[in-house]
Design brief:
13% strand; six-stranded parallel β-sheet; Rossmann fold; alpha/beta; 439 residues; elongated; N-(1-d-carboxylethyl)-l-norvaline Dehydrogenase, domain 2; 16 helices; 3 domains; 14 strands
Length: 439
């Protein structure tokens, strides 16, 4: 089938590349000529494991193309996907839909023959119907349907999530549109992937409800971690004990400095605003937004406390600044709250991240940068493990203790065991567990 993908951000690019690997002919469109030129040179503007190789394979096979010419991409396409950004709108947290509606109007002008216009972007309830209304208002003669096809891609594991999804959600009221979507995803039928066919409104809400539920699990386990610290329990054991319950499950029960990224922060806000406007407020979602914001600030205080109550004039080494490992995404990362706070309190902060330095330098101008994990330890008064990249999971703790001026390790991801850190000579602070003194 012939597919046009409007937008080459994270979702649009991954989706377009993966559809081309299914054997479809895909043309990805972006208004940024420099980005399109980069893609045509085989350069990937984001870090996603395996994406560069998959893009190269399908470009070479002639199934994957990049252009700024939306009209040529949309003409004769069986399906046109809208994969542009929907950031939180300043002031009220509602999803900013200007890019979605702008793309829809351009698509309307270019439609030629029956086409399914598919919203891949995360959008509030009612957006798909509004897109169809705008297309029909602009082109009453347009032969098209709309479909909602929300994405469930985890950064760092997006290709696996696309190729082996838990489910595919398709919202549409047209049998013809559902048949096009079924053909697009037909390669997944070999794995018997469930396809949830539903209404436009239900599909839109499924995406928000899923992300909000996962955010609630994170907020919950972070609050339980605080309780564990105050009563002498171990959050690792508590999480394991409740996660083995099949009704709860173990995923997303990992305490830390708060969630970030491109989805959870904006999607929880958007759902809360939508629910408020619909007269059915989601108080749990509103609470977890507040809990998560406070969590990031609290982690800065936790670091200060581990340093004896003050970081003024002290050297703080930081391992990881992206919101999670295996991505270069800094959006709403806890580091953007924690590190500036340490700087404001007079600390000298040096960070290392395998992929986050480029954006980190721009977003946190006061931070110094190192070339490796041990470099940030040199003469440091404290080391903070903020993002659990694999290369941070088996560091030589004795070497780290010997390199530091004051051997304080604040592990905000519970990567290490307290007794191991203590045996290496480190004063160890983690999440939801008792601090350990050097042995």
């Amino acid at each position: 089938m012939r597919v046009a993908m409007i937008g080459t951000g994270y979702v649009g690019l991954v989706t377009g590349v993966c559809f081309s690997d299914f054997g479809h002919e895909v043309t990805c469109v972006d208004i940024d000529a420099d980005k399109v030129a980069m893609l045509n040179r085989g350069e990937v503007p984001i870090f996603e494991p395996g994406l560069d190789a998959l893009m190269a394979t399908n470009t070479e096979a002639g199934r994957l193309h990049f252009t700024t010419d939306l009209t040529s991409a949309v003409k004769n396409a069986d399906a046109v996907f809208i994969g542009v950004g929907t950031p939180s709108r300043r002031g009220d947290g509602y999803a900013d839909l200007q890019f979605v509606y702008g793309a829809a109007e351009q698509i309307a002008d270019a439609l030629d023959g029956y086409t399914v216009v598919v919203l891949k972007s995360t959008v509030p309830v009612g957006t798909n119907r509004e897109v169809l209304r705008r297309i029909k208002a602009r082109r009453p003669d347009a032969e098209c349907d709309v479909a909602s096809n929300p994405e469930f891609l985890r950064e760092g594991a997006a290709i696996e999530d696309f190729m082996r999804p838990d489910r595919v959600v398709v919202g549409s009221e047209s049998d013809r549109a559902r048949e096009v979507m079924r053909e697009l995803y037909r390669p997944l039928s070999l794995r018997e992937t469930p396809i949830v066919n539903t209404t436009l409104e239900s599909a839109e809400l499924i995406k928000y409800a899923a992300n909000a539920f996962l955010a609630i699990k994170i907020g919950f386990i972070n609050e339980v971690a605080d309780l564990c610290e105050n009563v002498g329990a171990d959050v690792q054991d508590v999480a394991k004990g409740i996660g083995l319950d099949g009704r709860i499950g173990s995923k997303f029960l990992h305490p830390g400095p708060g969630y970030g990224g491109s989805c959870f922060p904006k999607d929880t806000l958007a759902l809360a605003r939508t629910a408020e406007e619909a007269g059915a407020p989601t108080r749990l979602v509103e609470a977890v937004v507040q809990i998560n914001d406070a969590r990031k600030r609290k982690m800065a205080t936790k670091i200060v406390d581990a340093c004896g109550g003050s970081v003024s004039g002290k050297r703080i080494g930081v391992l990881g600044v992206t919101f999670k490992p295996n991505t270069d995404d800094m959006r709403d990362s806890p580091s953007l709250v924690i590190l500036p706070r340490l700087l404001d309190l007079g600390a000298e902060v040096t960070a290392y991240d395998p992929q986050g330095r480029r954006e980190g330098e721009e977003m946190m101008p006061g931070v110094k940068w190192a070339d490796g994990p041990y470099d940030v330890c040199q003469e440091a008064d404290a080391l903070v493990l903020l993002t659990e990249w694999n290369e941070f999971r088996a560091l030589d703790l004795r070497r780290i203790a010997d390199m530091m001026r004051t051997s304080v390790l604040v592990d905000l991801r519970n990567v290490y065991r307290p007794h191991e850190a203590a045996r290496a000579g480190l004063a160890y602070t983690s999440i939801g567990r008792k601090p350990s003194a050097p042995s």
